[in-house]
User: Fold these one by one.
Assistant:
Number 1:
Amino acid sequence: MNETSVLHAVDAVFDREIAFLSELVKHPSVRGEEQSAQDFMARELAAGGYEVDRWEIDVNDIAGMPGFSPVIGNYDNAVNVVGTLRSRTRRGRSLILNGHIDVVPVGPLDMWKRPPFEAYIDDGWMYGRGAGDMKAGLASNLFAIEALKHLGLKPAADVFFQSVVEEECTGNGALACLQRGYRADAALIPEPFAEKIVSSQVGVLWFQIRLKGLPTHVAYAGSGANAIEAAIPLFAALHDLEKQMNAPQCRHYDFACHDHALNLNIGKIEGGDWASSVPAWCVFDVRMGLFPGQSIDELKQRIEQAIAEAAKSHAFLAQNPPEIVYNGFAAEGYSLDEDKRPVAREALDALGRAHKFVSGQELEKEAITATTDARFFGLYADTPALVYGPKAEAIHGFNERVDLESVRRITQSTALFIADWCGVEEL
Amino acid sequence: MNETSVLHAVDAVFDREIAFLSELVKHPSVRGEEQSAQDFMARELAAGGYEVDRWEIDVNDIAGMPGFSPVIGNYDNAVNVVGTLRSRTRRGRSLILNGHIDVVPVGPLDMWKRPPFEAYIDDGWMYGRGAGDMKAGLASNLFAIEALKHLGLKPAADVFFQSVVEEECTGNGALACLQRGYRADAALIPEPFAEKIVSSQVGVLWFQIRLKGLPTHVAYAGSGANAIEAAIPLFAALHDLEKQMNAPQCRHYDFACHDHALNLNIGKIEGGDWASSVPAWCVFDVRMGLFPGQSIDELKQRIEQAIAEAAKSHAFLAQNPPEIVYNGFAAEGYSLDEDKRPVAREALDALGRAHKFVSGQELEKEAITATTDARFFGLYADTPALVYGPKAEAIHGFNERVDLESVRRITQSTALFIADWCGVEEL
């Protein structure tokens, strides 16, 4: 096997890869609705000669594990799929190829140029919710292996292809894979960070603030009794905390040049029932980042303090103390860059070589301001997790899209990386 | 007939009145769900010897009429009920007894001591959504007539008992009664204003402000791109307008002593889809008051100006101009006090005498900061509309309740007023 033949093999299977990706995007796998996408995935893996493990996550199995996030709603139909490709020779190092099947909500449909699950291609981009984040990555994982097969080869070590749910709100899908016993010498997660390697990622905490008060007919509306408007000073208090946490002296070293790595987002709000009733309730959902090494519990304390402080000096809130509920992400930060063990350096070097062969460039590092499932492998299973995927735009936005030539390059680098890391054996 | 016998007659039917009110409160007649309550009403009227007219409102019939408010949702099942009690002699003045069957939403159930449609009695109060606003009024209208019947009498002029929908969001139910041809020499509406007569009422305009923008993954959240937080400067701009409109020099004479008659209420909000996506949309519903004599169109212009002005100097809003949608109330103010015609003075005097006989007190006037259906009779049908009803608490709030002894007194005054205004004839 030479490297160039691997690139050509990816070219040879690339039409099939695009067709696969297109089909995958057409499954609208928002939270709770991932089953049809997972069925498709399981079928494709079985057809490709993988042993398929498909199971429903049981919260009780994972609730006590480090990295667990409190669960929103129920887990009926929260289904993971793992395909195992066993090596006969086991000469090389084993590998987890991980990707998440869940996609974020589409938002108002009229803000999309075309329906979000159409998976149409325009000018070299495939459009659709999840096209970039991260169904292209799942496709790339699968077709890197297909390319090797096209050459009559397969990895000379066990490879575990994981298609997990819940990446976008808790990470409990990847955690359930750990609980089920899946382990390998390294993990690759092709999240769409534009062909860079993620050196560090922030943590993420989700919380909900609930305000309740005593409503009246609007005819008797006094100032300060409005639960919707009472949220405003809380927004301000939270943004103050955000500012403090982003101060230069508070940053993780890998984020030293990021002026604003930790974003606080008021992502969702709902309140009141009737234009002419003073609203008695308001609920809003917040996402806050934290640096690798920072403690979730400490962040919770700071949030609770900031909210309590703001409530004290506000007529409505002092009478009606806000309730803070944690549901969804309780995710620590993770820095691959801090993993100085040989296995981590070797994995990075192997990926760097593959990347350079495909692109002609050194592999650039990036400290990202989002979280990924990499933390589970890195923090809780001593497994270096390489986050390296294609270029995408408008992820979580409207007209989300992924650059197909970038997908091709990532598939090529991935195939080369697998051949290097795992070695190859005859099919 | 002497006055005291009328009071006793109300006492004699009062147990039945409470039973009727209790049954009526148990029908959860929120908008779109008024049918069972109206069915009950129609049955009771038919049983009481009224000719019953029950019809579905057709928006096309009323859309061109003055006082029409734009409609939220559809009008399937928007049903009015009018019972006509014809006089043989027609010696007196005819009368409309009006009340609305619709109630506002209940809000979060856990904020109610007991379920909102249980209609339980505690310490002389009947509790329940709509108990005060205004099913007690409907009961009082009906049992004032029942009390006369108890004496072997009925009104000596045609009486139209109206049970209308849509009072709480448009007033189109009362408007549809006008369109259907119902007219009388006066109207009585027992809205729960604590046994006072409403001398003037404000107008009400409802509008919705819709914000849309371009969302991104929260990892790339810049400040100012959040559609939820972009609502805050608009709240401020609207409250500025509210302040201007309440300035002493801007007040209607009957509200001269009201420091804050025109309440602007941010009553409902919704925005965003996901804690970790920068929200691309936010919608909020506003209620604003206006004085009698002020024009709806002029108020709309001022609102549009205030919103446009605020948007100009805000990064997000300048790029994503807010949309203003008018749905629901476009209600002018109404002042009975300004109606100097003899018919209005006579109606007021008759009610004043009845009130004084029952309570021993002069009838107090009140300029109210809410609207009622009185405006349709007063402004668009030259009919003096007397708004005079029982004492209630927490209307539009939790644990809404009505004072049953107050309901008794209002029923007594109403019976006396009918006997005076319409005269009586043998059953």
Number 2:
Amino acid sequence: MLNYQLPLDLAFQALCDPARRSILDRLSEGPASVSELAKPLPMSLPAVMLHLKVLEESGLVKTSKSGRVRTCRLEPKLLSQAERWIAERRQMWERNLDRLGTYLDEGE
Amino acid sequence: MLNYQLPLDLAFQALCDPARRSILDRLSEGPASVSELAKPLPMSLPAVMLHLKVLEESGLVKTSKSGRVRTCRLEPKLLSQAERWIAERRQMWERNLDRLGTYLDEGE
């Protein structure tokens, strides 16, 4: 049994919450401060910071502090890896469906 | 606050476990019985069935029973939706990076 979490485990775990997806959505437009990220979310600042912690630990987001402002940035590498994992399975599924179609056509 | 789970919550929650990704990987090649899915996994049949339950409840997998054999199939719709969600954010991030590059070039 695997007793550690793989990067994709952490990525999908981070993506499964609507507040965290909303934060990623905003960060896809460019860097933002924690308070900018918190503004549209219906929750307290500490709750937003917990979501940011999950995103940062997953590797989907990086943060840096300058003075009193913490700026958050999207890190696209793991996001691309998660996208690729899904795309490959979807494509494999479609290829097999096409193959089945060809097989059925030839059998007519 | 949202007190129900959205389809994307369930999809990413299902995807965050390596055993469940392994099952989806196998199902992308075509339908399989529960025992075929269980064979390569280092866990008990009841554990595999719990993972299948999560996958079925998410909508990523459908199962049907014929006699004593339960056959599992990948349902590509939600998988595509999850892929699209990620792809759109990644593309938005890249567009904004390009725009920043153009802005910096113009400033030289």
